[in-house]
Amino acid sequence: TLLTLYILYSGASVSNTGVRVAKSGKREKATFVTLARNQDLYSLASTIKNVEDRFNHQYNYDWVFLNDADFTEEFKEVTSRLVSGTTKYGKVPKEHWSYPEWIDQNKAAETRQKMKEEKVIYGDSVSYRHMCRFESGFFYKHPLLDDYDWYWRVEPDVKFHCDINYDVFRFMRENGKKYGFTISLREYDATIRTLWPTTVKFMNDHPQFIHENNMMDFISDDGGLSYNLCHFWSNFEIGSLDFLRSHAYNSYFDYLDKAGGFFYERWGDAPVHSIAAALFLDRNEIHHFSDIGYYHIPFSACPLDPVTRFEGKCSCNPKQDFTWNGYSCASKFYTVNNMKKPEGWQELA
Ligand code: GDP
Ligand code: MN
Q1: How far is the CA of 297 from the centre of ligand 1 (A)?
Q2: CA torsion sign, 241 to 245 to 247 to 253?
Q3: Which residue has its alpha carbon closest to ligand 1 atom 13?
Q4: In this structure, are residues 218 and 329 in contact, taking their beta carbons and an 8 Å threshold?
Q5: Which numbered ligand comes closest to the C-alpha of 131?
Q6: Which residue's C-alpha comes closest to atom 15 of ligand 1?
Q7: Is-contact 183 322, C-beta < 8 A?
Q8: Given CB 3.0 to 4.6 Å as the disulfide criterion, which of 178, 269, 301, 324 pairs with 285?
């Protein structure tokens, strides 16, 4: 058959489940991971096609889909058709998407009402809070992720502007990286008022978890007294699952969870992951993917470097790059790490 010929000549193979497996070369133990609802299917489908065209058709990495409800047959059919690696579908266990017993639900309802009046984005949403708590402390505990060392988080409706012509997971491993980001920015203060004081208490109780070469200067401008709200935007993450599985990270998450701020405030998974990365990792383990063109409403990262733009066939307008905008935290990241900013960054600041 044509399929057999394709396999013979391309060196690809089809497993007995009909799933395509990688052509050649050693892949990392890595997967894409997406939390989504069934109604996100078609926003996600175009993103998956984009990720495949820009990157994954060369590597055929797997894709894990998670949902607090059961995925529909349509969801599984459409997504499995688009992904070149194996697709896996998991349901979030109830305990990972509900109120822990120590949470006072009346108190939680009061904050939602208050945040609604103050027009805080997602301030009155219960599901958004479960989502943030899940992405902070549970997605990596799902059994479907047990097979992997690395993850790349993808959300519906995001877009990649440039070809990614190398294996980013291999890059992470070979360069000793544990956490990779594209966009960084400042969090809405109203959503995390007690996150830093809680973090300070945690640091005092567990000083052994703080890395000696940490990146406190990225998240605090006064040596740790206050949080400057800088965080890595977690809708894109390429990271080490071992980092999230670490004793330090899980002690931190459990401490935050006990404090209740996922429900009494509206703590996001982005500041939680970012603060943890900045405190528990060696600063050299955190990587800015300056060559990955990326969009999540309302911001784009668009590489300024002409060689990167040419080699990656980037389709974005560098004048719309958010990375070097005054509200971004990238400039701080480069400054505190003594890194060279790209030609032309000042025109965007
Ligand atoms: P935003 O980026 O902060 O505006 O939040 P999103 O609406 O994009 O949600 C973040 C991620 O969680 C996306 O991948 C969503 O598909 C997913 N998500 C958000 N809420 C829910 C939910 O109630 N159930 C499920 N299964 N996924 C959700
Ligand atoms: Mn989103």
Answers
A1: 13
A2: positive
A3: 155
A4: yes
A5: 1
A6: 36
A7: yes
A8: 178
Atom of ligand 1 nearest to the CA of 235: 2
For β-strands 30-35 and 150-153, DSSP reports them as parallel
Give yes or no for a contact between 156 and 44, defined as CB atoms under 8 angstroms apart: yes
Which residues are the active-site residues?
237
The tens place of each residue's pLDDT in the chain, 349 residues long, gives: 344 433 333 334 333 333 444 445 689 999 999 999 999 999 999 999 999 999 999 999 999 999 999 999 999 999 999 999 999 999 999 999 999 999 999 999 999 999 999 999 999 999 999 999 999 999 999 999 999 999 999 999 999 999 999 999 999 999 999 999 999 999 999 999 999 999 999 999 999 999 999 999 999 999 999 999 999 999 999 999 999 999 999 999 999 999 999 999 999 999 999 999 999 999 999 999 999 999 999 999 999 999 999 999 999 999 999 999 999 999 999 999 999 999 999 999 8
What are the E-state strand segments in the chain?
13-14, 20-21, 30-35, 62-67, 87-91, 150-153, 159-160, 179-181, 184-186, 230-232, 237-240, 286-288, 294-296, 299-301
Number of the ligand 1 atom closest to the C-alpha atom of 40? 16
- Between the CA of 174 and the centroid of ligand 2 the distance, in Å, is 30
CA 155 – ligand 2 centroid, Å: 6
Q: Which residue has the tokens 């905008």?
A: 325
Residue type, position 97, single letter? W
Which residues line the pocket of ligand 1, CB cutoff 6 A? 34-37, 40, 67-68, 127, 131, 155-156, 235
2 CA to centre of ligand 1 in angstroms: 40
